[in-house]
């Protein structure tokens, strides 16, 4: 009889043991490890603390674990750590769960919009700053958190900044609630304070600990904003870094980047090169330039591979190495054509979504097993150059929204093939994201007056709609609008009169 005590083979067990050992060593060698005790003391002493340290010093992965070990999660309280990017929240949570030798979603979890891996047992919770903002709407005192860590604060994204303002208020409210009698240091009890007292309803709250983490040395603006909060600096780096500057400002930094990449490639030893640029267009054009230049290198020189990473790239591709699939790329464009609709990107996406559901239905009637259905869908995605994970994500989002709508007691029905109704619905929902074509062919966003261009990825690119609704505004070398649908400009006044109705 085989033993069931452990599912893993001896080799696997050995591998796991080695990995655990390696992780222990890595953690010990991080610059933050040597100041664990001091950091915990500072958090105990100060309600607001600013932690500054180089990238890689261990702030994001280690500090929450230190605080957990120091008892900040007693009474079931949670340590929340916000990240500006979804992918960071996910990867860091996975790493920390592994460091804690626990499954993701137990002690350590993450929560991002439409994807929640936390449970009642979760004490260290990584999340996007946008998600915490939403939580604060439902629970203005953020009562389940003992500590909030605002990470990457130096990036100063809109969400992070709004969050800092909000957390300042939450801290004040919690400290009022902490005082049993509701006495405040000043006699003045303004409206927000008296409503806070109502919200506490006699419950005693511990003050909210707030930690602002930043990789930039300029902690002063955060310190000033929080009434002279204390800042601690973590010294040291995990890896040696040389900083080299150009003597003169570069007028064409893209070209300078290209030259530098080939300098490193031809003159330095083995290793990878990471180049940061401002947006998708720059990344794509640098990639093209590198490939062109690489073709001119002597045939015996080391090959150079380029792997672009930007947020709108599907996550598999973000992780994957670059694959030169020329024929595939051409085919992919052809495949996209079959879903394309000159009514715009949203309808194109709906066409894809419906075709996928049809494929699911077909495989359902042929074979009832869930696993086989998913397999068939995966295959269908492969054949049609659709990203399977994105499609699954769309299905999750759809079923969650459907759940919410049903919970609200609303009736759910489909517009069927009536795509005018569909576009009118988009207009009613996204009326703030409308853009009107100008005589010179550019567009003007109506709410902000900004001049914008259609993004080349849109199916409407090279067409001339009078008016569009957009979902995304990206700023690279220019302002671009993405995910577009053509609408009738008259619908705006009809469906959003509060915003667009004219005087007469
Ligand atoms: N997802 C990951 N996979 C493997 N190692 C990781 C991961 N995230 C972090 N690490 C390790 O932890 C170290 C500290 O990372 P982190 O806590 O993110 O530092 P900081 O927040 O100060 O930039 C990194 O140098 C790396 O060795
Ligand atoms: Mg970090």
Automatic annotation (TrEMBL):
Keyword set includes Ribosomal protein: no
One Gene Ontology CC term in the entry: nucleus
Catalytic activity: ATP + H2O = ADP + phosphate + H(+)
Annotated Basic residues bias: 15-25
Cited InterPro entries: DEAD-box_helicase_OB_fold (IPR011709), DEAD/DEAH_box_helicase_dom (IPR011545), DNA/RNA_helicase_DEAH_CS (IPR002464), Helicase_ATP-bd (IPR014001), P-loop_NTPase (IPR027417)
EC number(s) from the headed UniProt entry: 3.6.4.13
Feature: compositional bias, Polar residues: 1-14
Alphabetical UniProt keywords: ATP-binding, Helicase, Hydrolase, Nucleotide-binding
Annotated Gene3D superfamilies: P-loop containing nucleotide triphosphate hydrolases
Stretches assigned to the Helicase ATP-binding domain: 40-235
GO MF annotation: an example: nucleic acid binding
Region (Disordered): 1-25
Top-level taxon: Eukaryota
Pfam families given in the database record: DEAD, OB_NTP_bind
PANTHER family: ATP-DEPENDENT RNA HELICASE, ATP-DEPENDENT RNA HELICASE DHX33
Name of the molecule in the record: RNA helicase
Organism from which the protein derives: Brachypodium distachyon
């Amino acid at each position: 009889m085989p033993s069931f005590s452990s599912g893993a083979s001896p080799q696997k067990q050995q591998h796991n043991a080695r990995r655990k050992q390696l992780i222990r060593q890595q953690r010990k060698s991080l610059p933050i490890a040597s100041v664990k005790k001091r950091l915990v003391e500072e958090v105990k002493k100060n309600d607001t603390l600013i932690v500054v340290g180089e990238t890689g010093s261990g702030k994001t992965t280690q500090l929450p674990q230190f605080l957990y070990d120091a008892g900040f999660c007693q009474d079931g309280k949670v340590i929340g750590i916000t990240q500006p990017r979804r992918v960071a929240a996910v990867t860091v949570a996975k790493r920390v769960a592994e460091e804690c030798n626990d499954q993701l979603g137990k002690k350590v979890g993450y929560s991002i919009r439409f994807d929640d891996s936390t449970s009642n047992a979760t004490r260290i919770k990584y999340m996007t700053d946008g998600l915490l903002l939403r939580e604060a709407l439902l629970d203005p005192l953020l009562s389940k958190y003992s500590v909030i860590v605002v990470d990457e604060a130096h990036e100063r994204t809109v969400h992070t900044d709004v969050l800092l303002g909000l957390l300042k208020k939450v801290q004040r409210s919690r400290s009022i609630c902490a005082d049993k009698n509701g006495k405040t240091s000043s006699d003045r009890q303004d409206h927000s304070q008296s409503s806070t007292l109502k919200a506490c309803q006699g419950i005693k709250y511990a003050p909210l600990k707030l930690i602002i983490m930043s990789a930039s040395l300029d902690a002063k603006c955060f310190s000033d904003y929080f009434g002279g909060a204390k800042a601690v600096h973590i010294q040291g780096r995990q890896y040696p870094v040389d900083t080299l500057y150009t003597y003169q400002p570069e007028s064409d930094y893209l070209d300078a980047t290209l030259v530098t990449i080939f300098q490193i490639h031809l003159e330095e030893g083995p290793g990878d090169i990471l180049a940061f640029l401002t947006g998708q267009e720059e990344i794509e054009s640098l990639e093209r330039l590198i490939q062109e230049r690489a073709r001119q290198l002597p045939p015996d020189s080391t090959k150079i591979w380029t792997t672009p990473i930007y947020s709108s790239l599907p996550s598999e591709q973000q992780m994957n190495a670059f694959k030169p699939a020329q024929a595939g790329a051409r085919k992919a464009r052809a495949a996209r054509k079959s879903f394309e609709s000159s009514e715009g990107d949203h309808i194109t996406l709906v066409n894809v979504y419906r075709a996928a559901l049809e494929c699911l239905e077909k495989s359902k009637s042929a074979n009832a097993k869930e696993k086989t259905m998913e397999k068939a869908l995966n295959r269908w995605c492969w054949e049609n150059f659709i990203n399977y994970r994105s499609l699954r994500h769309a299905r999750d989002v759809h079923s969650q929204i459907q759940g919410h709508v049903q919970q609200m007691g609303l009736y759910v029905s489909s517009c069927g093939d009536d795509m005018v109704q569909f576009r009118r619905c988009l207009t009613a929902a996204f009326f703030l994201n409308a853009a009107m074509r100008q005589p010179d062919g550019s567009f003007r966003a109506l709410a902000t007056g900004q001049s914008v261009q259609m993004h080349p990825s849109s199916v409407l690119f090279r067409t001339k709609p009078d008016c569009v609704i957009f979902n995304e505004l990206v700023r690279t070398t220019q302002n671009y609008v993405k995910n577009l649908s053509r609408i009738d400009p008259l619908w705006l006044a009809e469906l959003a009169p509060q915003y667009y109705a004219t005087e007469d």
